[in-house]
Design brief:
The complex is a heterodimer of chains A (264) and B (261). Chain A is an alpha/beta fold and 264 residues long. Chain A is 38% helix and 23% strand. Chain B has helices at 3-28, 31-38, 41-47, 50-81, 86-100, 104-119, 126-153, 156-164, 169-199, 215-226, 230-260; one strand spanning 208-209. The interface between A and B is medium-sized, with 28 and 28 residues.
Chain lengths: 264, 261
């Protein structure tokens, strides 16, 4: 290594040290009290909109409503905190970057608990069991994945639904992946694909928007979790888990669940 | 102070500013994080050979189809725009202005999703075909303008000479004007080709089957499945491997053309 390179390196190292020193400061909370970005507030990061989990809502105190937000609001209320919602890109949320950068206390963003993500952040107990579903035009005669032989099935790129479809479609079916649910739904509308495999709640919203029906549901053993940063949030995580359990025990959780996911 | 010393000093200062800017960038970047996120060797290895035999191959095929289609259609439009019959000129001008004024991404979206709903007609070749048709339509508008400029750059005397030899109007166009016009427009058309190569990346919005994926769709798909941005770096390098030689070729042709005249 040339002396010049060494110098560059040592400067970089010094800078990194200085930066990390800045990061470790913060409010010293009492033992057992969750450490928060700003006292009295639970700052939640979410990638909005993602109906029915989160959507902008002017009438809501936090400016957003949806399943994720309502659950977070109920937990915040139990902790005597005010809910503050920040909209952020999902990439930063799932990689733990937003939490590490101190943008929020907790991420509640329809995020599936996975091993890869667990490497960069800590998940709460599951608060929602995610199912996949098959959406087709009403009366199309498609009743299951097996009926898609020789037809086109749309999926959203990079989702667990896309993975599930890859493993389970008949050989004759063609998988078309789209960048987001907007194009996916447009393709189903225009006849570019005959069916769509997507998260159940997202497809449920589409059944209300056109002549579509959910013909099959799939259990993929996946759950959504809330996430906190890896270190220094143990007390917050414990409080979240405790209050989440309390919500489930009291039946408040079911009330919120029925509000958004009633299939009837 | 002598004039030469002054010049030398200004140059020295300019060099210093440049070096300082480079040094600032190098120092500010988090190299370990960059390497982890964008140059992960293991993930890079996994991308091969599909990134070449599927993704790069499709990018080249799509570019070739869009360029060939755009050339044919663009030539027709250019001739229409120079036509003595006014409605042809109006139609060509309206077309060119319309499609040059729209983002290619929106045209692709329209052909993939809106046209089938409006006309109960799907372009052949599924979503990739719809996207390609849109690219042909957009590139034809640009190519038409390039060819028109080329045709008008052929000296009038050439046409007059052909006429004096008793050649008909259309034969003059085909055998005298167009061959010379094409020589003139080869550099700008090559630039058009480079733009098209990059524009095939917009096809992702139309939706793709795995075997239809071009470089960008392939890279985006890989990024979400491996949770790392290295595939984007590979795709970027692939584009550069094709576009850099082409842009250098254009520069070379332009130098030669400038010397020839």
């Amino acid at each position: 290594m040339s002396p010049r390179k060494l110098k560059t390196l040592s400067i970089t190292a010094a800078l990194a040290l200085a930066l990390s020193a800045c990061g470790s400061g913060g409010t010293d909370a009492a033992e057992g009290e969750p450490e928060l970005l700003s006292a009295g507030e639970l700052t939640v990061c979410t990638d909005a909109p993602y109906k029915p989990f989160v959507k902008p809502d002017k009438s809501a105190p936090s400016g957003y409503s949806g399943f994720d937000i309502d659950i977070a609001a109920a937990i915040a209320e139990k902790m005597d905190l005010e809910l503050k919602v920040k909209d952020a890109g999902f990439d930063g949320l799932q990689s733990g970057a937003s939490l590490a950068a101190g943008q929020c206390d907790v991420v509640v963003s329809a995020m599936t608990i996975t091993e890869e993500r667990e490497a960069n952040l800590d998940f709460s107990d599951p608060y929602y069991d995610s199912k996949q579903s098959l959406l087709a035009v009403t009366g199309s005669g498609i009743a299951s994945l097996d009926d898609l032989d020789g037809k086109k099935l749309g999926v959203q790129q990079g989702t667990t639904g896309a993975e599930y479809a890859k493993d389970n479609v008949p050989d004759g079916a063609q998988l078309i992946s789209f960048p987001s649910d907007a194009e996916l739904y447009a393709a189903l509308n225009s006849g570019g694909v005959q069916a769509v495999l997507q998260d159940l709640p997202v497809n449920l919203v589409h059944t209300g928007e056109g002549e579509f029906e959910i013909v099959e549901e799939y259990d993929t053993d996946e759950s959504y979790g809330m996430a906190v940063k890896e270190e220094g949030s143990e007390d917050l995580l414990a409080a979240i888990n405790e209050n989440l359990q309390a919500l489930k025990d009291s039946g408040d959780y079911d009330t919120i669940y029925e509000k958004y996911f009633s299939t009837k | 102070m002598k004039r030469t010393t002054k010049t030398r000093l200004t140059r020295g200062v300019m060099y210093l500013i440049f070096l300082a800017a480079v040094a600032a960038l190098v120092l500010a970047a988090d190299w370990a994080a960059i390497q982890k996120a964008f140059f992960n060797v293991e993930i890079a290895k996994d991308a091969f050979p599909d990134v070449i035999v599927v993704a790069a191959k499709n990018t080249i095929i799509y570019t070739a189809i869009a360029f060939a289609g755009g050339m044919v259609f663009g030539l027709v439009l250019a001739l229409m725009k120079l036509s003595p019959v006014a409605p042809y000129r109006w139609a060509a001008t309206a077309y060119i202005e319309f499609f040059r004024g729209l983002p290619a991404l929106l045209v692709i979206f329209t052909f993939a999703f809106a046209v089938p709903i409006a006309f109960q007609w799907r372009p052949p070749g599924g979503s990739a075909g719809a996207g390609l048709l849109a690219l042909i339509i957009v590139s034809a508008a640009y190519i038409a303008e390039t060819i028109r400029a080329g045709i008008q750059a052929v000296p009038k005397g050439q046409v007059e000479a052909a006429h004096s030899l008793g050649m008909s109007g259309s034969w003059t166009m085909v055998s005298v004007v167009l061959p010379q016009a094409f020589r003139i427009v080869i550099p700008p058309l090559t630039n058009e080709l480079v733009v098209l190569i990059k524009d095939t990346s917009l096809l992702f919005i139309a939706g793709m089957a795995i075997q239809e994926q071009e470089l960008t769709t392939f890279a985006r798909d890989s990024v979400s499945s491996v949770g790392n941005s290295t595939p984007l770096t590979i795709a970027a390098l692939m584009y550069l491997a094709v576009t850099l030689p082409l842009t250098r070729l254009v520069a070379y042709m332009e130098r030669r053309g400038a010397r020839g005249r």
